């Protein structure tokens, strides 16, 4: 549900022939979630326990990095989209298989009144996201006609933060309520669900983008932050404040490099 902004912005961008905006938005979102959101959360909350078992992390990394292999020709077409969707489906099935033994067996009682209210607010929020994304993309297209800047780059440094506001809110609410494991699992799942969205958008309409410095910088930083996350999650069975500082520093370096690219 929190990935709906990426999907709705992507659909509107595709309809406006600005699909490369979605590529920057979705792949830049990976760095935002792990570098900015998780890094900031660790700095504010010191530490979160992790599962030292590496079974789930390599398949997640494979899915997240797959667009860079599939898009090396500067295009995501129907075949590329179907591969990303298949990889996502396979990952979900794999995660279910390895986590079946940890699923709860008891019944949970919830308050119907609070649940209904939360559901209604969620539906209203989703509708607002869909409506807002249309006007945001239209405004962006108008600005792009006035200012010479790459759609891919704009998606990286602007949209990737804006469309991840739901993840930011949920992450910090989870930390405030002392449920850091929920925050971590939510950020990881949102990260690889972005690839599902990119696959769906590619099936809807082929996405063309320029292979150049922006693309290579993006590939480097996404790969770097995924590798760092796997190392940190495996070491000491926890993520620490020091590791949060490193993740946030990687995000900061990513932003600085892209700003320099704009200047050039």
- In whole angstroms, the N-to-C terminal distance is 37 Å
Strand content: under 5%
How much helix is in the residues?
A: over 70%
Mean pLDDT rating: 77
Element string (H = helix, E = strand): HHEHEHHHHHEHEH
Tell me the number of strands.
4
Cα gyration radius (Å): 18 Å
Low-confidence stretches: none
Largest sheet: 2 strands, antiparallel
Overall spatial form: globular
Secondary structure class reads mainly alpha
Strand order of the largest sheet: 1-4
Total count of helical runs of at least 4 residues: 10
Structural account:
The structure is a single chain. The protein is mainly alpha-helical. 77% of the residues lie in helices and 4% in strands. The chain has helices spanning 4-15, 19-45, 57-70, 78-99, 112-146, 151-162, 165-176, 180-204, 213-234, 241-263; strands spanning 47-49, 75-76, 207-208, 238-240. The strands form 2 sheets. A two-stranded antiparallel ribbon has the order 1-4. The chain has a two-stranded antiparallel sheet with strand order 2-3. The longest helix is centred in the middle third of the chain and has 35 residues, at 112-146. It is globular. The termini are far apart.
Features:
264 residues, mainly alpha, two-stranded antiparallel ribbon, two-stranded antiparallel sheet, 10 helices, 4 strands
Give the SSE layout:
Elements: H1 4-15, H2 19-45, E1 47-49, H3 57-70, E2 75-76, H4 78-99, H5 112-146, H6 151-162, H7 165-176, H8 180-204, E3 207-208, H9 213-234, E4 238-240, H10 241-263
Antiparallel strand pairs: 1-4, 2-3
Helix pairs in contact: 1-2, 1-5, 1-8, 2-6, 2-7, 2-8, 2-9, 2-10, 3-4, 3-8, 3-9, 4-8, 7-8, 9-10
């Amino acid at each position: 549900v929190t990935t709906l902004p990426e999907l709705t912005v992507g659909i509107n961008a595709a309809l406006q022939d600005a699909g490369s905006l979605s590529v920057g938005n979705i792949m830049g979102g990976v760095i935002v979630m792990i570098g900015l959101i998780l890094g900031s959360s660790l700095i504010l909350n010191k530490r979160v326990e992790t599962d030292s078992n590496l079974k789930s992390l390599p398949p997640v990394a494979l899915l997240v990095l797959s667009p860079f292999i599939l898009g090396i020709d500067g295009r995501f077409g129907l075949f590329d989209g179907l591969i990303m969707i298949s990889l996502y489906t396979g990952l979900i099935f794999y995660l279910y298989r390895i986590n079946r033994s940890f699923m709860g067996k008891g019944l949970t009682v919830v308050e119907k009144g609070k649940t209904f209210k939360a559901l209604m607010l969620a539906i209203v929020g989703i509708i607002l996201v869909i409506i807002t994304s249309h006007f945001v993309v239209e405004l962006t297209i108008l600005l792009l006609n006035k200012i010479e800047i790459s759609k891919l780059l704009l998606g990286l440094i602007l949209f990737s933060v804006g469309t991840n506001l739901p993840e930011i809110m949920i992450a910090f609410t989870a930390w405030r309520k002392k449920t850091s494991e929920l925050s971590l699992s939510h950020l990881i799942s949102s990260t690889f669900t972005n690839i599902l969205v990119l696959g769906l958008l590619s099936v809807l309409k082929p996405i063309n983008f320029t292979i150049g410095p922006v693309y290579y910088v993006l590939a480097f930083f996404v790969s770097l932050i995924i590798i760092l996350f796997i190392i940190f999650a495996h070491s000491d069975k926890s993520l620490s404040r020091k590791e949060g500082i490193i993740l946030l520093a990687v995000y900061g370096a990513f932003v600085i490099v892209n700003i320099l690219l704009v200047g050039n």
